[in-house]
Design brief:
The complex is a heterodimer. By secondary structure, chain A is α/β, with parallel strands linked by helices. Chain A contains 22 helices and ten strands. Helix content of chain B is 65%, strand content 10%. Chain B is elongated, with a radius of gyration of 35 Å. Classes of the chains: A alpha/beta, B alpha/beta.
Chain lengths: 615, 619
Amino acid sequence: MEKKSQKEKKKKLPFKRTLSNNLFALRAIWTASPIYLTVYLGSSLVYGVLDFLSEGYLLRKIVNGVEGGEEIAGMIRYVVILGGVSILVYSALNWFWNVISPVMQRRIAAYIEKLLFRKAAEVELACYETPSFYDKYVKAMDEAYERMIKVMRTLDNLIARTVALFANSLLLFVIDPWLILFGLFPLLLGFFKRLENIAGHDMETEKKPINRRANYVRRTFYLGEYAKEMRIGGMYENMLRDLRETFTEFRRFIRKYGTRKAIYGYIQSVGLEVVTILGATFYSVWSAMCIGSENGGMHIGDCIVVLGSIGTISYCLNNLVQNFAEFGEHALFLEDVRFFLDYNPTMADGKEAAPEGGGKLEVRHLSFRYEGSESDTLKDISFTLHQGERIALVGSNGSGKTTLVKVLLRLYDPAEGEILLGGKNIKEMTLASYRNGFSTVFQDFKIFSMSVKDNVLLRPGRDGDDELVEYALKESGADEKVGRLKSGIHTILTREFDDKGENLSVGEQQKLSLARIFADRTPFVILDEPSSALDPIAEYKMFENMMRATVGRSVIFISHRLSSAVLADRVLLMDGGRLAECGTHAELMALNGKYAAMFKRQAENYLGSEVTEHE
Amino acid sequence: MSKQPRQKLSSILKNNLFMLKKVARYTPDYFFWMIVEGVVWGTINSASGVFSFHLLNTVEEGTDFPAAAGMIGLMALFYIVVYAFDRWYWQIQNPLMRQKLHLKMHEELFVKARSLDLSCFDDPEFYNDFVWAMDQSDKRAVEVLEDTGKLINRIVASTTLVGLLLTVDPVISVILFSSSAITIVCNLVGNKISFRHSKETNPLWRKKDYINRVYHLADYAKELRISRADELLMKEYDENTEKIIEVDVKYGKKYFLFYGLGWNALSTVTFFTILVYMIVLLDRGELAIGGFAAVVTVIWKIRWMLIDLIERLTKYPKHSLYIEKYLEFLRFTPRIQTGKSELPPFESLEFRNVSFSYEFSAHPKYQFHEEDYKAPVGENGNREALRNINLTIHAGEKIAIVGYNGAGKTTLIKLMMRLYDPTEGEILYNGVNIKEYDPEAYRKAIGTVFQDYKIFATTVAENVMNGAYCEERDGGTVINALNTADFADKLGTLKEGIHTHLTREFNDNGTNLSGGESQKVAIARVFAKDYPIIIMDEPSSALDPMAEYNLNQSILHHTNDKTVIFISHRLSTTRIADTIYMFDTGRLIEEGSHSELLARNGKYAEMFRLQSEKYQVSL
C-alpha cells in the first residue's frame, strides 16, 4: 500500500492528461456560469494593459519628455486621462467582484458540490470500506471546488503575465535588444521551481496518515464520549506518547523535505535577483555611463525603465513557469476528482422498475465476502421470504445477520448466488426502485440534523405529511417525547448547526428511527436489532405495535432477545455465515438444536425463578 | 448591532505579552529568531528602494562608474547572504520550531483537559469553548509571534523608506500619508462590516458543512442509500445556497463602498496626483531623475507598508480576546477536590441522602466574549436525576441496579465513581466521605465497563490494559482477561492475536470488531486489573444470548470475593444478584433479593413478568 502510493506520486501525468484535467475544471466552471469565467479572464487583459500604460510606458514617456524639453501640459493631460480611465475601469470591476461575483461563485460551488454529492450517493457501499478509495474520495470532496477555482486563477494569471511580458519586452527591445537575454534567464529557473513543488507535494502526501493519527489523538482528548475512559486507566499516557511520536515524524519530514525545498528556492531567488535584475542593471548602467547616449548607449531615462521593466519581465516569466507548474499540480489533484466522478459503480444499475407491491423474495445459494477478507461472511444461503411473512433472523454475534441484510438491500452484490424478487433477479431492477421497496432501521441508524418530521419521512415533504408523521411516531412510541418538544414534529434535532436543536437520548433516537417504517408503507421492512436501546416495556410495546402495523408487509427483524422471535412466522438461525436452522419457533424447539439451546439458556433465568416461586 | 466587546488597552497588552512570554518559555529559539527575521525582512523590503535611489543619482552625475559598479556588487552580495538565511529559516528552522511549540501547547492542554470534571463535558457551552481553545491555542500563539515579527519588519522598512521619501520631497509624503490614513479608516469600517457579515453567514456555512459531512462520512452512507434522505439534503442545500447568496450580495455592496472606492479608487487617485506633482517638479528642475525614479518604485511599497502596519496593530485586540478565554480555561479549577487520606481496602460503600442534578449552566467563570461561540443554556438544565438515595453496599456483595430508561441508573454509577459530586448528601467509603480521598486513587479501586465504552485505535492488548502494555508483565493477564470475557473464540481468529490493531483508522490491516465483540474487549478491561469493585453498566446490551449467558457465568465465577454492581434493564441478568435495587425516575423504589421483590409484587415483579412472559408461553 505504502509502496504503491509512492509509485503513484512519482508518476508524472502526461501532458495530454494535464491539459485535459485542467480543461475539465474550466468546462465545469463554464457550465455553471459562463459570464463569470468570461469576466474573470477578460479582466486580466484589461488590468494587464492598464498596468503597462501606467508603469513602464508612462515612466519612459515622462523621463524622456522631460529630458527632451517637451511641454508638460501634454504629459499632464496624458496622466490625467489615464488616471480617469483607470478609476472608472477599476470601479466597475470592483463592483463586479464585490456584488456580482459572489452570487456566481456560490452557484459554481453548488454545481460542483452537487456533482460530487450525487456521485457519493451512487458509488457502492464497499467503496467506503476500501481505504485507498476512501482517501481519494475524501480528497476529491474536500478539494474539488477550490481546485477548480485555482485552475481558473492560474489561467487568469497566465493571461495577465503574458500581456505584461509582451508589452515590457517590446519596450526593452526598443531600448536595447540585448536586454531580452537577461529577461529570458528566469526560464532556466523554472526547472527548480518544479522540483520545489514536487518536494512540497511529496511532503503533504507523506504527512497525511500522520496527520490522521494526530487528529485522532486530539479527538480522544476533547470528545466527551472518550472523557470517561480517559479519566480511568492509563490510556491517556499512550495517547500522549502517540502524539509525541507524530511530532517526531513531522519534524523528520521537515528536515527531509525542507532542505530540498530550501535549496531549490534559494537557487531561484538568487538567480532572479542577482543574475537577472542586478545583471541587467549593471549592463544598462555600464551602457549609460561608459558608452554614453551620444555614442548609442542608453539614456538615463532608459536606465530607469530597465530597472522597472526587467523586474516585471523576470517576475512574469518566473510566474509563467510557475503557472505551468501549477497546471501540473492542479492536474494531479484533479486526477482524484475525476477518478471519483468518472468512477463507474461496479454495481450495475438495472433497467426495469421493481414491482411496486413487492412480492416473493427468494435468496438462492448466496455467498458473500468482504473485500480484503479471507473467508466468506455468508456461505451458501437460500431461503424465501413470502409476501406478508415475518421472519426473525437470529444468531450469535458475527454470524452474518447484518451482512445478509445489507446484501438483501443490494448495498453489496453477492459473490455467488442470486436474489429474486417476484421471480426476477434484482440486478435487473433499478437500484432506486428496488431499495424504495424497503423500510430499514439499522442498528447504527443515524439521526440527521433536521426536523423530527424530516427525520421520520427522510424524503421531501408533501401535503398531509404531518398526520402521517404523528401516526408513525405514535406507533413507534416516540410521540410522548416529541409531544413534549417545543415545536413538536418541527423541532430541529441535534445541535450541529442550530443552537436551539434538541439532543435526544439513544432510546428516544431509536424510537424515532423506528417511526420511519410506519411512515412509509413499503412492501418490505427490515429491522436490525430494533430494541437494543429500549427498556423492556418500550420493547414490548414496540414489538406489539410493529406486528400490528405491519400486517401484509414482509418483515425481517434481527434480534438478540429470543422472546421476540416467538412472534415471528418463521425463525432463521444463522451460525458462522450459514443458515443453520429454519422453521417456526415451535418447530425449532422441537428440533432441539442450536436455537432451542439458545432459547433455553435465555429463558432459564426467568423460568427458573418462576419455578422456584411456585414451589 | 453586535459589537466586539471593548477591552482596556492594558489588558490587550497584558494578554499578548502573556502569550509572547509563554512562547519564549516553551521555545526560546523561536522567539529569538522571530526578532532576527523581522529585522532581516525589514531590510530586504527597503533595500531595493534605497539602492535604486543612490544608483540612479550616481548615474545621473555620469562620471563615477566604479562607484556604481561597487553598489551593484554590494547589493548582489547582500541578496546572496540574506536569501540563504531566508530560505533556511522558512523551510527548516521555522517549521521545526512551530512543531515544537505546537506539541508543548497541546501537551499542556491535554493534561488540563484530563483533569477537568467530567460534568464539563456535559455542558455544551463549556464544551464548545474547550474545543475552540484546543483548536486555536497553538495557531494563535504562532500568530501573535509572527505578527510581532512582521510588525518589526514593517517598522524597520517603513522608517527607512519614509526617511528616503522625506529627503526627496516632503509634499509627496504628506499626500501619501493622508491617503493612507483615509484607506486605513475605510478598512477599519470594512472590518466591522465583515465581522457582521460572517456572523450572519456563520450558521449558514455550518449547515453547508454539515451537509458536506453527511456525504463525506461512511456512517451515513447506508442511510443515504436506503432512504430518500438524499433528496431532502439536496433541497436543504439549495435553499441554504440561496440564503448565503442573499446575505453575500447585501454585504457586497457595502464592501464595494469601503474597499472598492475607499481603497482601490483612492490609491489610483493618489498615484496619479503624485505623478502630476512630480512632473511639475521635474519640469522646474527641483527634482532629480534618480529621486523621481526612486519615488515611483517605493511609493506603492510605502503605502502598503503603512496600511499593513495599522492592520497588524488591529489584530492584537483580537488576539487578546482569544487569549483571555484561553487563560480562563487554563485557570479553571476542577470542582472535584482532591482529598488526602490513604485509601484503605474496601469494606463498604454507603449512599446517605444523596441527591443530584445535572447543571448545565453553572460555569459562571465561563463567559463568552465572542458572540459566535455563545450557545444558549439548555432548557432542561438543572433537572434532578437522583433524589434522596440511601443504600449500602458491602464487600463481596453482588448488586443489581435495575429500572427503565432514564431512571437514574447510570447517574448513580457516575456518582459512585466520583465523576461527579452529589448535589446533596454524601457518599461514604468505609464510613468516610469519599471526598476525603484522592479521586485518582479512589477510582483505581473501581473497574467499570461503561454502556458507551470506547475502543481505542490501538492493539487489543493496549485496549484491554487501557494503557501501556508490557509483554512480560501483562501477557498472561490480557489473555486471561479476554478468556474471562468470552473473547477467546474471536481471539483465535485474529492473526496477530492480542497485538492485532483495532479499527482501520490508521492501519489498513486493522480489524473492525462487531458491537458484541467490542463489548467483550471492554469487559476484559475490568478483569485485567484486580479491582475490588466492579461495575457493569448494561454489560450485555450488544451480546447475543449465548454470549450473555457465558459472560454471566464467567463473572460469577471470577468474582467470588469481589463486589460487583450490575446495571441492566434485562432482568434475567440481574436475577443472580444478592440485592436488587429498583430505580424509577431518580428514586430508589424497591430493594431486596429477587424472590423478595417478586413476593412483594410491585414494579419489579411487573417488569419481570413482562419480560418473561414470552419465554413461558413458548417453551
